[in-house]
Amino acid sequence: MLTTKPIRVFFKYAIPSILGLLAISSAGIIDGYFVGNYVGPTALAAMNMSYPIITIIIGFSFMFAVGSSVICGKLMGENNLKEANNIFSKSIIFIIFSSILLALLLYFNLDNIFSLFNAKENLKNLTVNYLSIIVFFMPILMVAIVLDFFVRVDEQPNLAFLALVSSAIANIVLDYIFIVEYDLGIQAAAYATGISQVLIFFILFPYFLSKKSSFSFIKPYGNFSSIFKAMKNGSSEFINESSAGITVIIFNYIMLQKFGTFGVTAYTIIGYFITVSLMINFAIADSMQPVLSKNFGALNYLRIDKFLKIASIFLISIAVVLVTFILIYPDVLIELFLEGEHKKDIENLTLQFIYYSWPAFLFSGINILITSYFTSIQKPFYSIIIAISRSFIFPISLIIILPIYIGNIGIFVTLALSEFFTFLIAIYLFLKKREKMPTSLITN
Q1: Could you give phi then psi for residue 190, rounded to 5 degrees?
Q2: Can you tell me where the transmembrane regions are (predicted)?
Q3: What percentage of the chain's residues is helix, strand, coil (to nearest 5)?
């Protein structure tokens, strides 16, 4: 991370991260394929209704994983391995207990939470049935997410890739067995997802017991203030995930009011494509976090600039390819998920989403990269501003205001305008911070 040519380091970390997260997101899309085609559109809508709760849980995990791992990355860049191990040990202890508590809290309140949506009873029941199984598996997934980030900091991106790909393959196989062969309904998708996530933990955990690991479990010393510092530092990741979930709640509510259950199904389908795009963006940004934090600890500011330039070019190139594909072949996405008598109605809504929201993909990658950059150099306030703008403030305000003046088109253009306005803020904050960088300390 500190001496190899930046382009080689970038591809060493970015490619496994992209492939791993794409594998996980594709497994989620396969879930949608099996549920949409073998269970029905209402069950597909129920999976989308579950998304906000899942993002809050994963967002908490990401907040802690990213915040603690970049602190350890900086410490390793400073050659302070003892304190890095102390924070690592505290992190694992904290995430185990907090994940169990959070899962229990959600499990016993799911019915009350989804009563607030005013969804039809059938949709609500399917959503609660699906989530009650997912929540059961969540503690081990949350621990696995933290382990995944520490594996990357320890310069083992291929192991992280192996864990994610193995989980994705297991999920697809189990989906087929449970849904197609045994016809177990939406609960089958939940069990397939949960069991496959357990696999990530069992692949990653033994590494930290081996001699290859730079990290080791030690008896923690000192107070737990470093835990709160980690949570503060990774708070933008929580905002990215959880506020995206809140945005989905608002979108689902508005789509239910305007178009009924089919509106939620249409939003779910375009959401799968958005997920693939975001997974690539987050994969590149996340893969750069340990690299940037270590170089920040070693005062290699020029290398940080080089990594950011390479990542930006790569993100923009990927976005252009994805946008070109979805505009030329929108039917491919729709055909994958829909069959039956209501296909035409849902297809029309999905096409409107595609044609109005595609500019969002051109800006979201840079927004996410700059957020990760500020997290890596431990400037959480700037990260929070960008994250809350793109995931909460602009989407919520625009989807409420725009339909009043331009009708349903206002719903469809919200995502694109949100990313564009956030892009302006992100670029301004990045240039402002860059001017203050201590250039007298720049090294190669």
Answers
A1: -65, -45
A2: 9-30, 50-71, 92-110, 130-151, 158-179, 185-209, 238-256, 262-286, 307-329, 353-374, 381-405, 411-431
A3: 85, 0, 15
